[in-house]
Amino acid sequence: MNSSVNGKDFITTQDWTVEELERIFELAAELKRSKREGKPTPLLAAKTLYMIFFDASTRTRNSFETGMTQLGGHGIFLSPDKMQISHGENARDTANVLSRYGDGIAIRHCAFREGNDYLNEVARESSIPVLSMQDDVYHPCQILADYLTIREKFGETRGLKIGVAWTSAPNYVRPLSVPQSLILMMPRFGMDVTLAVPPEFRLMPEIEEQAAANAAAAGSSFQISNNFEDAFTDADVVVPKSWGPLMHTTDHDEGFALIEKYPSWRCGTEHMKLGKQHLIYMHPLPADRGREVTDEVIDGPQSVVYDEAENRLHVQKALMALTMG
Amino acid sequence: MNSSVNGKDFITTQDWTVEELERIFELAAELKRSKREGKPTPLLAAKTLYMIFFDASTRTRNSFETGMTQLGGHGIFLSPDKMQISHGENARDTANVLSRYGDGIAIRHCAFREGNDYLNEVARESSIPVLSMQDDVYHPCQILADYLTIREKFGETRGLKIGVAWTSAPNYVRPLSVPQSLILMMPRFGMDVTLAVPPEFRLMPEIEEQAAANAAAAGSSFQISNNFEDAFTDADVVVPKSWGPLMHTTDHDEGFALIEKYPSWRCGTEHMKLGKQHLIYMHPLPADRGREVTDEVIDGPQSVVYDEAENRLHVQKALMALTMG
Amino acid sequence: MNSSVNGKDFITTQDWTVEELERIFELAAELKRSKREGKPTPLLAAKTLYMIFFDASTRTRNSFETGMTQLGGHGIFLSPDKMQISHGENARDTANVLSRYGDGIAIRHCAFREGNDYLNEVARESSIPVLSMQDDVYHPCQILADYLTIREKFGETRGLKIGVAWTSAPNYVRPLSVPQSLILMMPRFGMDVTLAVPPEFRLMPEIEEQAAANAAAAGSSFQISNNFEDAFTDADVVVPKSWGPLMHTTDHDEGFALIEKYPSWRCGTEHMKLGKQHLIYMHPLPADRGREVTDEVIDGPQSVVYDEAENRLHVQKALMALTMG
Fold first, then answer.
1. Which residue out of B44, B90, B93 would a mutagenesis test of the A interface target, given it has the greatest number of A Cβ atoms within 10 Å?
2. How far is C122 from chain B (nearest CA, A)?
C-alpha cells in the first residue's frame, strides 16, 4: 500500500486533490466488490485505529470499527470521559503516545469553534494520519459516501444538479459540517450546487467563498437561494437536512425561535416532484422524521439513504487502507 | 458454512426444529474440542457481530465477544446510552444500516413487555441474523448451554428428570426468561420437567401451555407444583433460580412482600439429598448466595455452574458460525 | 510459546527472577524490531485478554489493547460499572468464568488497601495468568518499560545511578506504586537508587526494606534522602514524580496541606544540571506540567518520556506472549 497519500491526514477534502480523492473512490468500489464476493481484504492486518468520540455516533463508530475488522485490523473506541482528555497541552501527549502505538487516529469533535481546532492540533503533533469523523466545520467522510452513491446511480457526475436544502428541525446546535462539506467538494467533481437556506442559516462565509472558488475553477456552478423549492427544481440529487443558525446566534431560545420561523422547510412528495424524473433523496441519518422529511419520501422509491449509509463503510475502508497502509 | 440455518434468527428455540438445534450441539462439541487442542477455528474470519446491551451482563458479553475472536471475527459492544437508540421507527434504521455493514446483531433487552417486541422488530427489518442475548420472555442461549452440560454429564437425556424451582431473592423484576426457556426446550429432548413455584410466581400462561404441548408431542412430561421439594425429588438435574412475580404484579412493594413470603425457598444440602445420587445443581449465575442457594451447594461437588458458564461460549460460537457463516 | 513462565501471574516483579525478567526484555526488543520492520507477530492468535479497569487510563488501555491486536488476539475493555463486580465472593466467579473463556486477565485497581488484595484474590481463583495494570502497591509494567528505556540509552545498567524523587502536585491520593516498583526492581539490575522524599511521603516500610535487601543481594545500593537535589546529583537517570502522603495520612485536607508544604519539589533545568552530562528525565505520564516539572525539561532534549511510553507497548507484548502463549 505504498502511495503518495500514505500518512496523509484527512480533515477536509480541500487538502486533497481530485486525483487523490479519485483513488479513494476507486479503491472503495473495489473493496465493495470484494465484500460482496466474500474475498478477504487484509490490507491493514494487525493495525490499530484509535477512534476518539467527543460526540456519540453509532453509524460512524460501527462503520469505522467494522471497516477495520474487514481490513484485518482493529478499531479502539475511546470516549473522552474515560480518557481524561482535556484541551491544550494534552493533545500533544495524546498524539505523540498514540503515534508510537498504533496506525491512525480518528476523531469526532463537533463542539462549535473547538472541534476542528482540536483535530488540527492533534494532526500537528501526530506522526500517524488523523482522520475526521466529523467536526464543527467539516464531515468529509459523509461526503465521500454521498459522492460514491451519486456516481453509482448516475455514472458521470459532471453537469448534475445537487440541491443542498436547510430543513426545520428542533436542534439549534446541529453542526454546519455536512452542508459545508457538500458545497465544497461537489463542484470539484463538476456538479452544479444550489444551496437553499433562510438568511439566518447561512454557512461560514469563508466556506461559501471557497465553494464558489471551487466551482469557478472546475467550470461548474454554486448558487445560494433563500427559497426551499430552488434546491429541488430540475435537480438530480437533493440533500434536505437541518443545521443550527450558528453564524447568526448561539443563543438557545433565539435559535429555537429561528427554527420555528420556517416550519414549511420540510421535504415532502410535492417537493420531490419539482426535480428531474430520476431525482434521488439523500440524508446522512439519523433524520428527524416528520420535521425534516415525511415518511413517504424517506421510505419511498426515490430515497437512497441506506445505500448512502452503506457507502460510509466502503469509502472509509478505502481511506484507511490508503492513508494507514 | 452453507446450511439451512444460515441467516436464521435465534430469538426462541421454538422457531428451531430439534434437528436444527442438534446441529448447534454437534458443532459446539467440535469447537470445544478444537479449543482444548489449540486448533484454530476461523469460521467467521473478518466478520462483525453487533452486541447491543440494554441491560448489562459481563458473562454474556465476554462469552460472545471472546467467541467472535476465537472464530476470527470481532464483536462490537454497544450500549444504548452511547447509541441514542429509541424505540419505534429507529429500530428500522438500526437494523437496515447494521445489515449493510456487518454479519449479525445480538441483543439483550429484558424490560418487561418491551424486550422481545424490540428483538422481533429488529429481526423483521434486518437482513442479517438477530440473536437473543436474553429478553423478557426468552433466554435461549442459556438453555443451549444448560442442555449441552446435561448431555456431557449424562449422555442420553431422554427420561431424565429436571426440576426448575423458584427461589426467594430480593429482586422483584428479575425476568422470567430462564425458567420459560427451560420448560419450553427440555421436554423436546425427552426430559421430564417439574416446575416448582409459589402461585404468585407462575410463568406466562401461553409459555406454560406451549411447554405442555411440547412435552405431549415429545412423549415426555411437564408438571407444575407449588411445593419446592417436588423439583428435587428423584431429580437428575435441578435449576433453583429466582424471578419476579411479574404475572401477578409489577408493583415494587407488593413484589418484595411476595418474595419475602417464601423465605424457605432456598436450595440447601437437605434439598439436594432428595434427588438421585448423581443429581447436579445448575444456575446461570450470578447467584444470590445465601438467598437462592447455600455456599455448600453452589461450591460443592454436585454444582456444575462453571461447566455450565463455560458452555455458553461453545454453544454461542456454534450458533454464530451456523447462522452468520 | 512453551516456557517456564507460561501461565505465571505478574503482580509484582518480586515474584519473578532476574532471569525470567530478562526473557521479557529480550522478547520486547525482538518484538519492537519486528514492528519497525512490519513483520507479523501472531504469537497470541485468536486469544483474548480481559482488561478490567477500576480506574481509567488511556495509555494503559491503548498499549495493552493495541499489543493484543499486534499479537493476533483481542483485548476486551471492561469497566466495573458495566460489570456489577463487587468485592469478596464475586472475584471467585469472575476468575473462574473468565478462565474458561479466555487467556489472560489484566486488572487496574489503585484503591489504597484494596487493589493489590483484589488482584491476589483473582489470581488465586484463576487458572489463566493475572497481569497487573497497576494497583495500590505495584506498577510492574511501567517499571519494565522504564528499564527497557534505560538499557536502550545506556547499554549496561550496572553502576548507573537512578534518582526517584517525590514532586509536589495537588493530588493527595496518587498511588505509591510507581516509586515502590522502581526501588524494588532497579537494584536487582545493578543500579544504585536514591529515593528523595519529604518525611511525610515515605513509602510502605516493608517495600523500603525489601528494596534495601534487593540492593544488598545484588551488590548495588539503595539510599533514602530528605533532600530533593540528592536524587539528581551525579545521576544518570531521574524519575521525579508525585504521590500521596498515604503512609502518613489519608485525610483530604491534611494531605493537601502536606503537598503545599514542599512547593520547591519541582523538577527544573537547574536540577537537571546537577546530574551527569547524559542525565535523562523520565516520567510515566500524564505529568502535572508546571507542578511536577517545567515544560523546558519535559519537552527538552533530556526527556525520554515518549520513548518510555512507547516501551510500555513492547514490554507488555512480551509479557503477554510469554505468560499467555
1. B93
2. 15
Distance from the A120 Cα atom to the nearest Cα atom in chain C, whole angstroms: 20
Q: Identify which of B50, B93, B101 has the shortest CB distance to residue A285.
A: B93
Residue in C109, C102, C93 with CA at minimum distance from that of residue C128: C102
Q: How many CB atoms lie within 10 A of CB C34?
A: 15
Task: Map out the domains of chain B as residue ranges.
Answer: 13-139+312-324, 142-308
Are C309 and A97 within 8 A, CB to CB?
A: yes
List of chain B residues whose C-beta atoms are within 8 Å of the C-beta of residue C84: 56, 58, 286
- List all chains that touch chain B, counting a touch as 3 or more CB pairs closer than 8 Å: A, C
Give me the mean pLDDT over the C243-269 stretch: 95
Do C186 and C217 contact (CB within 8 A), yes or no? Answer: no
Task: Write out pLDDT tens, residues C41-71.
Answer: 999 999 999 999 998 888 899 999 999 999 9
Candidates A66, A305, A306: best to mutate against B (most CBs of B within 10 A) is: A66
Class of domain B142-308 (CATH, top level) = alpha beta
Which residues of chain A does B48 touch, with a Cβ-Cβ cutoff of 8 Å?
65-66, 69-70
Q: Are the C-beta atoms of residues A204 and A137 closer than 8 Å to each other?
A: yes
Q: Which of C101, C105, C127, C324 to mutate to test the interface with B (most CBs of B within 10 A)?
A: C101
Cis peptide, bond prior to residue A286, ω within 30 of zero: yes
- H or E element in which residue B109 lies: strand B104-109
* pLDDT band for position B84 (cuts 50, 70, 90): low
pLDDT at A3: 57
Average pLDDT for residues A110-137, to the nearest whole number?
97
CATH class of the domain defined by C13-139+312-324: alpha beta
How confident is the model over A99-113, as a mean pLDDT? 97
What is the least distance, in Å, from the CA of C91 to any CA of chain B?
A: 11
Asked if C13-139+312-324 and C142-308 have one fold, the answer is yes
Please tell me what DSSP assigns to residue B146.
H
Burial of B277 from C-beta contacts in 10 A (0-12 / 13-18 / 19+):
exposed
Mean pLDDT of B2-16: 91
> What is A111-156 written as a DSSP string?
-TTTHHHHHHHHHHH-SS-EEEEEESS--HHHHHHHHHHHHHHHS-
Closest CA to B10 of B323, B245, B294: B323
Give the residue from chain B lying closest to A317, CA to CA.
B101
> Residue B125: what are its φ and ψ, rounded to 5°?
-90, -15
What are the tens digits of pLDDT across the range A126-171? 999 999 999 999 999 999 999 999 999 999 999 999 999 999 998 8
The one-letter amino acid code at B263 reads P
Q: Quick one: pLDDT at residue A233?
A: 98
Q: Above 70 in pLDDT, residue C3? A: no
The CATH class, in words, for A141-308 is alpha beta
Buried b or exposed e, range A21-36, using 16+ CB within 10 angstroms: bebbbebbbbbbeebe
Q: Which 8-state DSSP code applies to residue C192?
A: E
